[in-house]
Design a protein that fits this description.
heterodimer; A: 106 residues; mainly alpha; 79% helix; elongated; B: 826 residues; Cytochrome C Oxidase, Chain A; Four Helix Bundle (Hemerythrin (Met), subunit A); two-stranded antiparallel sheet; two-stranded antiparallel ribbon; 24 helices; 67% helix; globular
């Protein structure tokens, strides 16, 4: 089961982070954000930090999958999990890039 | 014992009962798989006839062939049948039939669950077809957007058939997915480590996980919409704090992965068939596995791709546009791996290859228009036009139907044991291929000219008349082609000459048995050393038939099968499977009472059916296990293994784990809906937040501690060989307290007052239901302990109950916490 987890975790972490950042963007653009006394600049900072945290999580995941203690004993699973880890890191950087590149609530 | 005697002995053990009763009571994967396939093809024919009615209506301007109300039912049911009653059940059927054979085992993990899934599909599908014949079919489009589908837009019974019929059918998909995941992980030939899995098994593992995580949001959406329609709980009504966009989120959380759920099995067929046709091995096996996994997960990040026109802010659109373009990468990896496989091999042009080439041409075009609609400005122009209709048909027909027909012709000798003689199939291919492109290539053009989807007639002078007429002619040509495929297959089944085993000289294990396959599939279980065992050892089929593998001695008279360790494929336990029984069909029938009761508003039938299902489930589980420890049993080659009922994590534990995964996604979707409404919906905050008070939280916390501690105490005392009574009593008390905490929320809300109250009511109902379910399991465990079915070795049932209790506690704390937090904060 641990080998299946090694294969599943990187992209699942991407999906969770992606959905969470999308949810955060929804909160930032809602009336609740303003009611809490926060402005859109704070929202941009929060989103950028969330993106950085998601990328850091993926880097940590990749390092863990490479480490002798946590890597799979199967060469096939080791290679596949590293490929999926890199895919998840690229997906995190690419799909969440809009937090610094587009308007926030228009 | 010679091969013939072994065959006869195994047939006596594994075969269904003779006559028509055999079909109703069989739990064998060969029968269930073929029944799925036959029914799915029947629904395909019905869906195809509806498509022809649509094309007849749109062939000429201002057509009066059908009145608008009937047309709405026809196009809705065409989509519903093709997506829910044809595509998914077709690959389920193929998988149920093929997967055990490819994995080198004798059946799927839970044979009775296969049969239960099939009967739910048959009954649920029949319900939908009945609505069509009675003229009360769903008519709001296959994705049923409210408010059109709510009582405001559709006061009749039509949408209820969709909401309840589809949910009934989805039980079958969830059942099949649990089966597939547990089978791929545990039920394989010894030595078949993860890197030696047949590529089709990898694809189906990904697809099954996608179904377990993709279908629950739709089941939740259907439940919420049905509750709104039946009891006025305003989840999707803006004036009472609901939001119709919530439906779109829940639907497309299912709907976009659904496209890949349909495509990936077909890609699995291509990855299996193509190397055999090219007389080589698959290029980039590891890359294809990672591409399939990537595609499976990335496809969940695209659901808003279908909602670009709903007014979502630019940043949200950009997230999903980026994710949509990313999906093209793993798809491209697979396409290039297939092209590379052709390049390195010596392709032979047989019927399966013809359909695969048709797939390449069509699917690549559908994929490219997919990238076009992933780009937001283009999608705003093409949204809800025939361009999208053409794109989705290129993806679904090109990406699913064509590869499945390749698979049909590839495995036809396996299904029938016969060799195709007539050449009707080639004519059929060209009619389908040319007819398809004649229809849908042109419809891209109509869409770009502004032709809206779902219109029941076209106006003269619109500029779409000639395109629509030509598309209709193409549609009928395609239909003639599909009819010829059916005739070709029918002729092959009925009159073709006997063929030889493994006519394609393939390397995978499904060809290591006689064709058509015997009910037990493999006379003995082989040891596997590569991905193509038949290429390594051409004599393997003979040695299997001689009983030289594991479990080659049928003397026990039981349905015996092996489980293996997930990563290495090392044998771990011996499983004794249940025999033929009418329990699955009876249980599916009683389950149908829940849906029919809701449909005809005979609400008394719902709790009655639920009680019936619970009693049948107890009967189902009671028949398993033994009253004494069996110890280690010989399985051949000097190896001895424990029975699966005497290991800590039996297959039932794994099945529960993956069922709870689906259940957890359902609950997560509910909490997402709650958060969505709180954040985005108009008319919030509600008139009043729920005050938690003291009794509710105390009951929840105390109940959680007792439930968690109780089942652990019971587990520990069982391992020590003493009675689990105190632990079970504590656990039951804790679960009752948790249920009580949920009831405080139920009684504190007015479900039809505001979407907030309605949501809390569903959250609390979920908590009470799961506390009651875990409580029922605890009572069952106590009865099993009293009956002598549990011991320090036979502890698997206790582990299953512990899993469900832990889940009930986690759901209660999370759900009730979410319900109470706003009241505490304000």
């Amino acid at each position: 089961m641990t080998d299946i987890l090694r294969l599943s975790i990187p992209l699942t972490a991407w999906l969770v982070a992606f959905s969470a950042v999308y949810g955060l963007q929804g909160v930032v653009c809602s009336e609740r954000w303003a009611e809490a006394g926060l402005d859109l600049a704070a929202g941009r900072v929060a989103l950028t930090m969330a993106w950085a945290a998601a990328a850091a999580l993926q880097v940590a995941c990749l390092l863990a999958l490479r480490s002798p203690r946590l890597a799979s004993r199967s060469a096939f699973v080791r290679r596949a999990s590293l490929t999926l880890g890199i895919t998840a890191l690229v997906a995190t950087l690419w799909t969440l890039l809009p937090v610094v590149a587009t308007s926030l609530c228009l | 014992m010679n091969a013939l005697r072994r065959h006869r002995a195994l047939e006596r053990i594994w075969a269904p009962r003779p006559g028509w009763r055999g079909k109703l009571t069989t739990v064998n994967n060969n029968d269930i798989g073929l029944m799925f396939l036959f029914l799915a093809v029947t629904f395909f024919v019905i869906g195809g006839i509806l498509a022809m009615l649509i094309r007849a209506q749109l062939a000429t301007p201002r057509s009066v062939f059908m009145e608008p109300g009937i047309y709405n039912q026809v196009f809705t049911m065409h989509g519903v049948i093709m997506m829910f009653l044809f595509a998914i059940p077709l690959f389920e059927g193929l998988t149920v039939y093929l997967l055990p054979k490819m994995l080198g085992t004798r059946d799927l993990a839970f044979p009775r669950l296969s049969a239960f899934g099939f009967w739910c599909y048959a009954f649920g599908g029949s319900l939908l077809i009945f609505s069509l014949l009675a003229g009360i079919a769903p008519d709001g489009g296959w994705f049923m957007y409210p408010p059109l589908s709510s009582t405001l837009g559709s006061p009749g019974i039509n949408p209820d058939f969709w909401l309840l019929g589809i949910t009934f059918v989805e039980i079958s998909a969830i059942s099949a997915s649990v089966e597939i995941v547990v089978t791929v992980l545990l039920y394989r030939a010894p030595g078949m480590s993860l890197d030696k899995l047949p590529i089709f098994a990898w694809y189906m593992l990904v697809v099954a996980m996608m179904i377990l995580t993709g279908f629950p949001p739709l089941i939740l959406g259907s439940l919420l919409l049905e509750l709104e329609r039946a009891f006025g709980m305003p989840f999707f009504q803006a004036d009472a704090g609901g939001d119709s966009i919530l439906w779109q989120h829940l639907f497309w959380l299912f709907g976009h992965p659904e496209v890949y759920i349909i495509f990936l099995p077909a890609a699995g067929v291509v990855s299996t068939v193509l190397p055999v046709m090219a007389r080589t091995t698959l290029l980039g096996y590891g890359w294809i596995v990672t591409a399939a996994i990537s595609l499976g997960v990335l496809s969940f990040g695209i659901w808003v791709h279908h909602m670009y026109a709903t007014g979502i802010p630019h940043m949200g659109l950009a997230f999903f546009s980026a994710a949509s373009t990313l999906v093209a990468v793993p798809t491209g990896v697979q396409i290039f791996a297939w092209i590379g496989t052709l390049w390195k091999g010596r392709p032979e042009m047989h019927m399966p290859m013809l359909w695969i080439l048709g797939f390449f041409a069509t699917f690549v075009m559908g994929g490219l228009t997919g990238v076009m609609v992933a780009v937001v400005p283009f999608d705003w122009q093409a949204h809800d036009t025939y361009f999208v209709v053409a794109h989705l048909h290129y993806v679904l027909v090109g990406g699913f139907v064509f590869p499945m027909l390749a698979g049909l012709y590839y495995w036809l000798p396996h299904f029938t044991g016969r060799k195709r003689y007539f050449k009707l199939g080639t004519t059929a291919f060209w009619l389908v291929f040319l007819g398809f492109h004649g229809t849908f290539l042109l419809l891209h053009w109509a869409g770009l000219l502004g032709m809206r989807r779902r219109i029941d007639s076209i106006e003269s002078g619109s500029g779409w008349e000639l395109i629509s007429l030509l598309a209709s002619i193409g549609g009928f040509v395609m239909a003639i082609g599909f009819a010829l495929v059916l005739i070709d297959v029918g002729v092959a089944v009925a009159v073709a000459v006997r063929g030889r085993r493994n006519p394609w000289r393939a390397g995978t294990l499904e060809w290591a048995m006689p064709a058509p396959s015997p009910s037990y599939n493999l006379a003995s279980i082989p040891e596997v050393r590569s991905r193509n065992p038949l290429h390594d050892d051409p004599d393997l089929p003979v040695r299997i038939a001689r009983g030289e593998g594991y479990l080659g001695d049928p003397a026990s008279g039981l349905r015996e099968i092996l489980t293996v360790e997930i990563a290495s494929g090392r044998p771990t336990s011996l499983v004794i499977f249940p025999t033929n029984t009418a329990l699955p069909i009876v249980m599916a029938f009683v389950t149908g009472g829940i849906f029919v009761g809701m449909l005809i508003k005979a609400y008394w039938l719902v709790p009655l059916s639920l009680a019936g299902v619970a009693m049948l489930a107890i009967w189902w589980a009671w028949s398993l296990g033994s009253r004494k420890d069996q110890g280690l049993r010989p399985v051949g080659h000097g190896l001895v293994l424990p029975l699966a009922s005497e290991v800590k994590r039996p297959p039932g534990w794994w099945g529960s784990l993956f069922l709870l995964l689906a259940n957890g996604v359902f609950f997560g979707s509910l909490l997402f809906g709650y958060a969505f409404l709180w954040t985005v919906a108009p008319n919030w905050p509600p008139p009043a937040w729920l005050e938690p008070g003291l009794p509710g939280p105390l009951l929840a916390l105390g109940g959680a501690a007792l439930a968690l501690g109780g089942i652990r105490l019971a587990d520990r005392t069982l391992r020590r060989g003493t009675g689990p009574w105190l632990g079970l009593l504590a656990g039951l008390t804790g679960l009752a307290a948790l249920g009580g905490a949920g009831v405080t929320v139920l009684t504190g809300t007015t479900p039809d007052a505001h979407a907030y109250d309605a949501t809390l009511w569903v959250v609390a109902g979920y908590v009470v239901f799961h506390a009651a379910l875990a409580g029922l399991m605890t009572v069952f465990l106590a009865l099993r302990a009293a009956g002598g079915y549990l011991s320090s070795r036979r502890i698997g049932a206790a582990r299953v109950v512990r899993l469900w209790t832990d889940y009930a506690v986690a759901a209660a704390l999370l759900g009730l916490g979410a319900a109470w937090v706003p009241g505490v904060l304000t």
